[in-house]
Design brief:
This protein is mainly β and 88 residues long. The chain has two helices and eight strands, in the order H-E-E-E-E-E-E-E-H-E. Strands 2-1-7-6 form a four-stranded mixed sheet, with no helix packed on it. A four-stranded antiparallel sheet has the order 3-4-5-8. The protein starts with 5 loop residues before the first helix and ends with a strand. The model has no long low-confidence stretch (mean pLDDT 90).
């Protein structure tokens, strides 16, 4: 098993293998405080009006949906509408 730093994880492009669509790069992770286990990747959602008006949602991708982490990309298998969460 190879160790990976968060900095390195943030530089990898996330690709949904169901749609072959690039979702962007992770900006954060959710983890369980007690165990330190990673629960999900957080990726900025699509921008409003070509990204000029900011974003109002983000992808929360469960760690169990990560299929493979390569040198440059992270492959995930998700239904995008199920992982896209609006900011509250």
């Amino acid at each position: 098993m190879v160790n990976l730093r968060f900095f390195e994880l943030r530089q990898k492009e996330v690709i949904n293998i169901c749609t072959c669509k690039s979702l962007g790069c992770p900006v954060d992770v959710e983890f369980e405080c007690k165990s330190g286990r990673i629960l999900a990747l957080v990726i900025p959602g699509p921008g409003k009006f070509w990204g000029m008006l900011g974003r109002d949602c983000e992808y929360i991708i469960p760690w169990d949906c990560v299929v493979q982490i390569g040198d440059d990309i992270i492959l995930v298998e998700i239904k995008e509408d199920m992982c896209l969460k609006k900011f509250s």
